[in-house]
Amino acid sequence: MRKRLTNLYIKTTVVLGLVSAVITIIVFLSGKSRARDFLQNESVPTIKQDSLGNQNPLVETWKFSVNDKVESIGFSPDGKVLAIVTDQNTIEIWDAMTGRKLHHLQSWSKIKCLKFSPNSQIIASGHTDKKIRLWNLRTGELAYILEGHKSTVSAIAFSKDGNKLFSGGATQDGSLKCWDVRAGQLVYSTGRISEYIKSIALSNDEETIACGGGYNGINLLDINGNHLEVLYDVKDSWPIKHILFSDNDSSLVEISDMKDGVRKWDVRQKKILFEKRCPFYDPEISSDATGNLVILKDQNLNHCTDSKNADFWFWRSETNYFVEKMKGTEAVVSSNGQIILVSSINKELVIRKSNRSFVIQNAHQGIIGYLAISNDNELAASYSCDGIVKIWSITESNL
Q: Which among 64-68, 239-243, 378-382 has the top mean pLDDT?
């Protein structure tokens, strides 16, 4: 009797072990399936990576030092000027062609948003003191101070001809305002249409304005400020951080301010085409001009003080896939989506162009905190946390 019980116990143990193993395999395969869905690689081209050490394929054209802590950098639309925003409420304007400092634009409150006019003649800055400042880039003089918002100016956008400026207010404001840039006067104000406005986008035909922030959806207005409709998901509303129109204005890309992720809307049918959850909370964003390629960046790591790389996730709106994951200190994509620039904690600079990837070692002596690419894709800028800014030539002949 005891022997039969012993044999039964052994058989039961073996069966349970086999069942457990099968369950483990199923879970593992299921997890791999979900991982493939989350990080789909079929859209990623095969990239040849050339590790070039100190033999730099990029031509370092100029470098200069900035005394104050840098908060952002960006090229003018014509690529001739680099603007550097500092924590001392200043905008430093540098000639990207000669490496010469042109202007030191001093304001008296924190800069929350910055835009060049399309002709690169005016730069507009939105501030925490509820004001917008328009600067003449030729003379460096303050042309106008635009007043009327009840809270921080959190978003600005120029019309294509540069004659109109649209601005949005933060919490306790939530209005969209249109300004005459040449006269420095208010054209119209919508009143409060959202909890706050964090992003403003104009359609390519400039017949529609999209703006949003908070949980109120995307407000669509005509160019004269008349409200058209709201793109809003009743079941799952997201706080909006960034809005982009597609090439033909038929769709909008919406990027969340939280961990919700990215969405693509059909504007005409007012429905969500697809969406993807973000792998981390409150991402920083870099994207091409139409939202075809979006880089989501984990902003929990400080640009200069953290001693490890952040995660970057690359999302393509055509396929609704995170097509790649990378690590680094900063990542940007060009306006046409053809060039990607990534920096890493070990001071490398990686440029991807024409399906090739070049790694430049020792690009800076300090950790690289900010990057920018000119609209003509000929220049790149990098800022390291030792205060050095470098301008690089990234033309085809150099790669």
A: 378-382
